């Protein structure tokens, strides 16, 4: 049954069933709202100009997303300030001959007319197709999938992890490759948007630093118009967390960058958090309450892997100032303060509990900033671990995590990281100074989608830093990391593109690294 008159009749006039058994899953409605759902849209333009998406796959559920925005250049998306009914279909086939769920939900102006359909009672390990309709307009078709049953044996998991997509710096070319890959999901590790006024290859809208809710809505909408990003969202379910640029560069909790303090940061954070939720395939459980939101969470992929999605911005202590004094170890004095935290007490305790009780074959920390220590001083005589926006500025929190992994004998600890706009592979030493000691885990750091643009001089090195024997690989191209996980082995393929100054260029695998089950540390494939 297509998205046609008969479907209209069945959904809006016969059932309009709640899609997931709760208000979070969607609202059944009738009367004037039904009329607005069926009528021709009262505007010119495509209401689905921002595409579609799905996210947070569970064994029995998924979140479907879209936003009505016929004019993405406006904070209201070109919509009237009233509620509208949006219909959806979920099917087992791309032709929608085997429809398993159909329903309708409200899109309200208070949420930028975004749609978050929370479906439950789905079959595990199953591919689904979905689409939306509003009035006579029909969205593109998306493909998604449910996760395997928790604890079930799984032969393989294939996913991509990405971060740092700066709209003016280049096209989101790597996503075109992701959209064609045989993957199960995409993990986004932050910097989905940037807040500044840049205008390099493509000018930011608005062309200034953003502060208000309308500003953040327009910026998110502009990013969502990138065709390759839309294709990757439509092709696969996503799991997302944020870093700093979704709000402001290097912010920490309620502190803006110490080098450029900004007024009324609490209101700015609340606006940024609200716009982020409005534009992501996240459930209503993750909707912000003012400047607060519960974003860290756990996702299992059968018995094979567990993802711990971390939030390293909302709760952290402020970073040390760039001029902070360092002790003989090379760390800033404040970085060694045991009261400083990256995750906050509650999230850290949650993570420790996950690492102690997990039975998964691979245990993943989906993390924003560099986790393994890195000495920046070229001299062998001394060390310098920088000012500390990454985990080198939060030594005590990191050590608690490492001690937990060792004490609990957590299997196959893997950290996946974004932020640095470069590819890295680092073994994770057991503490902050003994880099030659046997590793307790492996960190795979992925480069940016576009941030930084094309490198002036592409560079790749392997095991060439005597100060950092834990560093196995470094590269400065743009791209993403494709991971294949089996019970026996983890493989990370570093996929790069030759340019983000144009669309349609092919990606290739520059290097691959493997971790064997039960053996911490990576080896070049």
Summarize the structure.
The chain is an alpha+beta fold. The chain has 8 helices and 23 strands. The chain is globular, with a radius of gyration of 23 Å.
Question: What descriptive keywords fit this protein?
Answer:
single chain, 525 residues, alpha+beta, Immunoglobulin-like, Purple Acid Phosphatase, chain A, domain 2, 8 helices
Question: Care to describe what's here?
Answer:
The chain has 525 residues and is an alpha+beta fold. It has two domains: 5-145, Immunoglobulin-like (Sandwich); 157-524, 4-Layer Sandwich (Purple Acid Phosphatase, chain A, domain 2). 17% of the residues lie in helices and 25% in strands. The chain is built from eight helices and 23 strands. It has helices at 5-15, 32-38, 174-180, 213-224, 227-235, 265-278, 345-357, 395-408, and strands at residues 52-58, 61-67, 84-91, 99-107, 114-119, 127-134, 137-138, 142-145, 157-162, 185-188, 238-240, 297-301, 305-309, 362-367, 413-417, 423-428, 441-445, 460-462, 471-475, 478-485, 489-497, 508-516, 523-524. Strands 12-13-14-15-17-16-19-18 form an eight-stranded mixed β-sheet, with helices on one face. A seven-stranded mixed β-sheet has the order 11-10-9-20-21-22-23, covered by helices on one side. Strands 3, 4, 6, 7 and 8 form a five-stranded antiparallel β-sheet that branches. A hairpin with a 7-residue loop joins strand 3 (84-91) and strand 4. Helix 4 (213-224) runs parallel beside helix 6. The longest helix is centred in the middle third of the chain and has 14 residues, at 265-278.
């Amino acid at each position: 049954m297509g998205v046609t008159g008969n479907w209209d009749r069945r959904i809006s006039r016969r059932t309009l069933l709640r899609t997931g058994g709760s208000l979070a899953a969607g609202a059944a409605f009738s009367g004037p709202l039904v009329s607005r759902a069926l009528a021709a849209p009262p505007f010119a333009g495509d209401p689905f100009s921002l595409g579609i998406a799905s996210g947070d796959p569970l064994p029995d559920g998924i979140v479907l997303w879209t936003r009505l925005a016929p004019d993405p250049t406006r904070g209201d998306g070109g919509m009237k300030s009233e509620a509208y009914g949006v219909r959806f279909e979920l099917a087992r086939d791309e032709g929608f001959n085997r429809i398993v769920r159909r329903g309708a939900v409200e899109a309200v102006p208070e949420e930028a007319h975004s749609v978050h359909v929370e479906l439950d009672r789905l079959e595990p390990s199953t591919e689904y197709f979905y689409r939306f309709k509003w009035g006579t307009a029909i969205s593109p078709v998306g493909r998604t999938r449910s996760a395997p049953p928790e604890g079930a044996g799984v032969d393989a998991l294939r996913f991509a992890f990405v971060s740092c997509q700066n709209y003016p710096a280049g096209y989101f070319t790597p996503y075109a490759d992701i959209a064609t890959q045989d993957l199960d999901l995409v993990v986004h590790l932050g910097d989905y948007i940037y807040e500044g006024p840049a205008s390099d290859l493509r000018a930011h809208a608005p062309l200034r630093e953003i502060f208000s809710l309308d500003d953040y809505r327009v910026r998110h909408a502009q990013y969502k118009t990138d065709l390759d990003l839309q294709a990757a969202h439509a092709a696969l379910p996503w799991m997302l967390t944020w870093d700093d640029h979704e709000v402001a560069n290097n912010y920490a909790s309620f502190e803006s960058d110490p080098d450029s303090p900004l007024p009324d940061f609490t209101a700015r954070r609340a606006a940024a958090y609200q716009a982020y939720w409005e534009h992501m395939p996240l459930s209503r459980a993750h909707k912000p309450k003012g400047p607060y939101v519960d974003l860290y969470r756990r996702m299992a992929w059968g018995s094979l892997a567990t993802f711990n999605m971390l939030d390293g911005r909302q709760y952290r202590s402020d970073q040390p100032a760039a001029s902070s004094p360092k002790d003989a170890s090379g760390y800033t004095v404040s970085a060694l303060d045991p009261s400083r935290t990256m995750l906050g007490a509650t999230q850290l305790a949650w993570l420790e509990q996950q690492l102690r009780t997990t039975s998964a074959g691979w245990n993943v920390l989906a993390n924003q900033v560099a986790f393994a220590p890195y000495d920046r001083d070229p001299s062998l005589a001394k060390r310098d671990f920088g000012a500390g926006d990454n985990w080198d500025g939060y030594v005590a929190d990191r050590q608690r995590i490492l001690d937990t992994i060792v004490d609990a004998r957590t299997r196959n600890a893997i950290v996946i990281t974004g932020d640095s706009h470069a590819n890295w592979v680092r073994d994770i030493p057991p503490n902050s100074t003994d880099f030659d000691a046997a590793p307790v885990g492996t960190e795979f750091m992925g480069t940016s989608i576009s941030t930084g643009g094309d490198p002036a001089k592409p560079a790749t090195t392997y095991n060439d830093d005597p100060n950092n024997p834990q560093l196995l690989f470094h590269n400065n191209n743009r791209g993403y990391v494709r991971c294949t996980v089996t019970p026996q082995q983890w493989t990370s393929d570093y996929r790069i593109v030759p340019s983000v100054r144009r669309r349609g260029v092919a990606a290739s695998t520059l290097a691959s690294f493997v971790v064997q089950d039960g053996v911490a540390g990576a080896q070049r494939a």
